[in-house]
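DM from R.C. (forwarded with permission)

"hey, sorry to bug you on a friday — could you get me a structure for this? deadline for the figure draft is monday and I only need the backbone to look sensible"
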Amino acid sequence: MTKTVTGLFDTYEHALGAVHALKDAGIESANVSLIANSPEGIGEDENVVGKDVTAGAELGAALGGAGGLLAGLGILAIPGLGPVLAGGWLVATALGAVAGASVGAATGGIIGLLTSAGVPESDAHVYAEGLRRGGALVTARVSEDQADTAIAILRNASGIDIDDLRRVYEQEGWTGFDENAPQLTAEQIETYRDRYPLVPPVV
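My reply, with the result:
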């Protein structure tokens, strides 16, 4: 039986470390997906929004490769998030539903994409909001005997505790991800990271 495990990270670099760790643990690149908001260079060129997965391969290579997954990274527009770097089985599944469409058009949005992969809806909202605020999401399909290893990797590679993050958001009055909310600019994301870092400080 296959399980879906997901980890949210503060930056693309942290997520990339998790992707490499999953690969080193024997989890095939074909079973790993990455969606990252605002890695270096994303969003600076308005012309890249909506390009298909293969169009972003050069950017993926420039940002750092991890086998087959990152070779297929591309820039896509997702409602509520704007341009993100995305690739892997989760994105391919969405794109397969409507050839040439953006992730949002193919799935009804990021919440639909995550829940269709088996992520509980309440968690999907937190993950989506984390992405909106500049985070990066790694999702892996694993067998039952790989699940504990994958979960440990996603928690220990600078991963964010989803329950802690939910509490932080709810203390702000947040009730759920809204894809119609204004897209955050790179400057707003950076300001938010400075004030409310997703990764808790080491004490």
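R.C.: lifesaver. The longest strand covers residues 2-9.
me: no worries. DSSP finds ten helices and five strands in the chain.
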